[in-house]
Amino acid sequence: xxxxxxxxxxxxxxxxxxxxxxxxxxxxxxxxxxxxxxxxxxxxxxxxxxxxxxxxxxxxxxxxxxxxxxxxxxxxxxxxxxxxxxxxxxxxxxxxxxxxxxxxxxxxxxxxxxxxxxxxxxxxxxxxxxxxxxxxxxxxxxxxxxxxxxxxxxxxxxxxxxxxxxxxxxxxxxxxxxxxxxxxxxxxxxxxxxxxxxxxxxxxxxxxxxxxxxxxxxxxxxxxxxxxxxxxxxxxxxxxxxxxxxxxxxxxxxxxxxxxxxxxxxxxxxxxxxxxxxxxxxxxxxxxxxxxxxxxxxxxxxxxxxxxxxxxxxxxxxxxxxxxxxxxxxxxxxxxxxxxxxxxxxxxxxxxxxxxxxxxxxxxxxxxxxxxxxxxxxxxx
Length: 381
Prior knowledge:
Helices cover 26% and strands 25% of the residues. It is of the alpha/beta class. The protein is elongated, with a radius of gyration of 27 Å.
């Protein structure tokens, strides 16, 4: 049995005001080509299909095109809702579509859903567990106090024969005690990691298809795996190698995992330096000017419209920050000398404020402008 493991599509997402629609279409086309060349029996999508519970019209259209492309290949699709999805919307028409080999599971209704396939080694069972919260199960079970208990209770509803081959599809935060997974800024992270679930609950499955974390990684064991998002959705992911995960399960105990690279239209990178250097032909000619950029400026001088100057060369600058004298100033120290400040003139106060915030003194021309302004009637008050 061979299947493609995907998750965290986040269709409709914008990053720093930039739409990711074209990037998403681009990687979905790559995934469809992989299906045509690698011939998996199924595609597993482990949650967070959309970025919002109520997706935009364009996001729905993009996903519809992707599902249609998947159906055209003849591959079976197993899809669960993630924490970004609306469970009821993802569950719509699920019974009808299952006859078309499209298995949707948006809502946990008290029973773990099972989809069974057969290959030359016998039956292999896929157990579908959409994202759940402890509060959503309290009408179904007693004494559900945390996420670990919620998942344990949900798994307990299934009669799982671990002598057979079993795959779990889940969108929860699974961790092994003592192991810290790689997290991303674009993930929703409850305070204190209260959503953490012990991987010991699922270690007997032959493979666990996880969604939620955006970096491809195992969760304490090679067969318990996050495939990661197919696109970089924050600058904390700029060094990630995005991929789809191809899983092949032979006879009981036989597992093969391969990562298939997904290449973006424009990469997400960070550049650093003085503005004049960064926008120079010598520097900019050596990189893709249309990549999504976070720019760190090291200039100490005041710059007028730095973002405009950067975007004249790099149209997809998403974010800009400074790493200079001013960036390291502790503004809390400015108020520490309040008693001394009472003895200073307005001009002296302004000069001190300028030095504290800019990191250098007013020059003669700037000082003359300030004096001229303060000498105007009523300006000092």
